[in-house]
Design brief:
Layout lengths: L2 H5 L5 H6 L1 H32 L9 H20 L1 H6 L1 H21 L8 H11 L5 H22 L2 H51 L7 E2 H14 L6 E7 L2 H8 L1 H19 L9 H7 L4 E6 L2 E6 L5 H16 L2 E2 L2 E2 L3 E7 L7 H17 L5 E3 L4 E2 L1
Parallel strand pairs: 1-3, 7-8
Antiparallel strand pairs: 2-4, 2-7, 3-4, 5-6, 8-9
Helix pairs in contact: 3-4, 3-6, 6-7, 6-8, 7-9, 8-9, 10-13, 11-12, 12-14
């Protein structure tokens, strides 16, 4: 194993950073769990010191009060500022470790006639919990143990300090071994989770998008459209049906391969004109439902459909569709002298509780465009070219 792979728990750097979001999320959850436990322990000791129970005197009240306050402040930061905690995850982990290990060191100093236990317990807990980088955790463990031993030899008798040194050496070796083993296993779990997630995303894409055009397939388009209708209030939206004119002639005269090419170009033109971003297809369904974005689908063959959002009215929709039609008409390659298309458009109204009625109106407008000579845009409200 190389030195670099040891730092990433036996994996390469790229694999580690592929999992870094999961690492940060896991650490943030552990911060809350461990610090809440730490808060509870100090609250109990605060009660014991107030009542002089179990040998915990009232002189310790300020000490426990300080750590109770620190634990509360830390918990509030983790709960209320999750974005900050995720961004500065390593720093927050170090702060948490520093708070608790300083607690263990100061507790040891307050009991000069007893071997330390709290510090060793906290060191073991951290070795099994937080995941970072092996060298960083090694450095932090060795530095904290060195500070602990220094205070032990300064404030305790030699025999007790020697006992602390023996215990800390044993626990440190154990903690390092446990940390590497546990975090390597956790990394393996993260990697398996990432692979499962990738498989789910690929299945989502395959089940949602048309392979030829990258547009939504018929079923997923209508499913998203129904969801959008259920969320929308007074938002201005239109349904646009688009059918390529003379597509059979393209197939007959230029071949089916050229026909597929024409369909691909039409799909690309729709995406570009409407500004549809499909860089993350696996999350597009959720984005299309929750955000004010347009989306489009292929109904089959040379038929397409789009739900256009983010416009205030026909005065914005008409130039957009004219731009789309002009882009299609300007296509020239391998004997293909432009792609002609008929458009049928209808506005979605508050009465449209499902997509079927709007689809029917857009379909009527599409056939009106065909009857009027094709390669035109018709709105169902007027049934005339624009």
């Amino acid at each position: 194993m190389t030195v670099n792979r040891f730092n990433y728990y036996g994996y390469d750097r790229d694999t580690y950073y592929d999992c870094v979001d999961l690492i940060h999320t896991t650490n943030r959850k552990l911060m809350l769990i461990l610090n809440s436990w730490f808060l509870l322990v100090n609250l109990l000791y605060l009660v014991f010191s107030g009542l002089n129970l179990f040998g915990v005197t009232q002189e310790r009240i300020p000490f426990y009060t300080i750590y109770v306050v620190l634990a509360i402040v830390y918990d509030l930061i983790v709960l209320l500022f999750s974005a900050f905690v995720e961004k500065y995850n390593t720093l927050m982990v170090y702060v948490n470790i520093a708070i608790m290990l300083s607690y263990g060191i100061l507790t040891s100093m307050a009991q000069p006639y007893m071997p330390a236990t709290m510090f060793l317990v906290l060191l073991t807990i951290f070795s099994l919990s937080y995941i970072g980088k092996m060298y960083q955790m090694l450095f932090l463990s060795i530095v904290s143990c060195s500070i602990f031993l220094l205070t032990s030899f300064l404030y305790k008798t030699f025999s007790i300090a020697y006992h602390d040194m023996y215990n800390v050496c044993i626990v440190l070796i154990l903690a390092i071994g446990l940390h590497y083993t546990f975090q390597r296993t956790r990394m393996q779990q993260f990697i398996l989770y990432q692979r499962d997630l990738q498989i789910q995303r690929e299945l989502e894409v395959k089940s949602s998008f048309d392979a030829l055009t990258s547009l939504l397939n018929r079923g997923r388009f209508f499913s998203i459209a129904e969801e959008v209708l259920s969320y929308a209030d007074d938002e201005y939206m239109v349904i646009c049906l688009l059918d390529l004119d003379g597509f059979k002639e393209i197939n007959d005269n230029l071949g089916h391969q050229m026909g597929d090419k024409a369909i691909q170009i039409a799909g690309k033109t729709i995406l570009e004109t409407l500004g549809i971003d499909l860089s993350e297809k696996w999350s597009f369904t959720e984005k299309a439902i929750k955000e004010n974005v347009s989306f489009a689908g292929r109904l089959g063959g040379d038929e397409f459909i789009a739900l256009i959002r983010g416009k205030s009215g026909q005065d914005e929709i008409i130039p957009l569709l004219k731009e789309m039609l002009a882009s299609l008409n300007s296509v020239r390659f391998d004997g293909l002298d432009g792609i002609h298309a008929s458009f049928g458009v209808t506005q979605l109204s508050a009465k449209d509780k499902d997509i079927d009625s709007a689809y029917k109106r857009a379909d009527e407008a599409l056939y009106a465009s065909k009857r009027a000579g094709k390669n035109q845009i018709h709105f169902s409200e007027e049934l005339q070219a624009v």
